[in-house]
Amino acid sequence: MWAIIELYSQKPHFAPLKEMNEDCREGLAIAHFVTFGNLVQRLPDLKPNDPVDIINNSLETLSDLETHGFDVGPVRGRLNQLLSLKTKMCRHQDTLKEVEKEIETCKHEKSMVEKEIDELKEKTRALQSKSEQIATKQKAKEEELMRMQTNDLEVDFEKLAATPL
């Protein structure tokens, strides 16, 4: 942790602690160093799905550390960048949820259209079958009519032939 303090070349003044008891002052000064070190150490461990409150709390802590003379600019800059990305990710997640809803709606509509198409195909098959039955009946009637007309003509022919001159 002290390496982190040295890496960021911190030279805090702890002016707000001057009013405190000396024993408390030293403990609080060490606590501020530890807090700064812990905050910097946790930075690389932040994950995209971590709550935004973690970043906001860290930014608040930096403000407190800044009043004691810590140089928090680079850390604050990084946290603000992460916060900005997190905000964009949240918006993107919201957009994805909306798109997923639209996809589900489209899938449902597609399913309904496919069902309607299947029903129409079934009706078409039924109508085709009925049409074939009617065509068969029509052909049978035409053949019967033809046979009846042919029989009438044969009868007429035979009558005419048998009639004396």
UniProtKB/TrEMBL annotation:
InterPro entries: DUF724
Annotated source species: Helianthus annuus (Common sunflower)
Pfam families: DUF724
Highest taxon above the source species: Eukaryota
Keywords: Coiled coil, Growth regulation, Transport
Coiled coil, from the record: 96-137
Highest classification ranks of the organism: Eukaryota, Viridiplantae, Streptophyta, Embryophyta, Tracheophyta
Protein name: Uncharacterized protein
